[in-house]
Structures are given as structure tokens and as C-alpha cells.
Prior knowledge:
The protein contains no helices and 18 strands.
Amino acid sequence: AIFGDYVAYQDNADPNIVTVRQLSTGTAKPVPGSTTKYLPQSPSLADGLVAVNEYSPTRNTHHASLFSFNFSNTPVFPRLFTSPVESGSGTLPQVTGNSLNWTLVWQQDGNGNNDILGRKSNGDNVAVATGPVDRSYPAISGNLVVWQEHNSTSGSDIYGSLLGQAGPFPISTATGDQTNPRVQGDRVVWADTRNG
């Protein structure tokens, strides 16, 4: 993941470590889960924020966690939020905003299907997209959340929702699979198999 002067990555030398590196200085710091029982994976970056999927192999659980970061402060990575493990595994977290005003979304499996849930910096929980179909691979930019939704008749499609407004809307429901969406501003991209 990259945002401005920072990049976050899972280290190939030690896949249990996620590192945030400042490109202009080369300074690199491991996300705190790297030194605890939780193994951080799948980083996402925003302005002064890093979100990771924390996995505990001893409990076989996942949760979405959000840290703010400032390389000049101690601690470098104060924890802002962790999704509750009791309601199922929270994975693939994506974050937008800054350390004072943020929204975190993630894929939650707890009812036999994946849902897209979220949390805002003001403490509000957000049920972005829930129900009997499988939803995965969320992405967020501002108030726009997009995800991949499995349709039993046509494969995977791309849907979106504007937080605080009416429910989900289709973005691409073409023949074949549309998967792995990403969003920046009001532009959405995804992988597409409609032409083979």
C-alpha cells in the first residue's frame, strides 16, 4: 500500500511483519502486531493511518485493526480500533481519512457469508452491506465504499455505497466476473473477465 511519502508492506524476509517506510528518508518501522501474538497482514494506508488484518494462529482468528502513526512520536503506532473477534473474523481492512477523522471498512465473516462492516472515528459502527449474499474485497475513498459481490447466476459483480446515504448500488454487473475493486475519489477500477 502507498500513500504520499509512505509505503506499507508485508516483509518477504519475515512474512509475520508489516513495515511502514517513509520513502524520502528511508526510515522504516514495524507495525506493533509484528512483535505480539498477532501476525499483521494486508496493510492499507491513509494520511497518518495504517490498517492491518491481524491473525492469531493460536486462536485461529482474524480482526481488522487500525493504528495512527507518526515517526516523530512515541509510541509510533498508537492503536485506534480493533474489530471484535466474537462476531467472526474481520479481514482485508481498508482505511480513508486522517488520524482525527477516519473511516475503516473490512470484510466480516460471521453468518456464513461475508459482509462489509465499518467503524468511524466518532465511534459509530457502520453496516455497509450485509445479508445473505457473499461480499468481499472492500475499498474506500472518502464516503464511497466499493466491494465484490458474488451472484449465484452471473458470478462476481462490483457494488458500491455512499456512507450515510441510500443502500448499495451496482457499479458493474456485466457477464463474467468483476473482482478486486479499488477506488480513488469517484473513480473505480476492477479486474474483469467479460472479454475472456
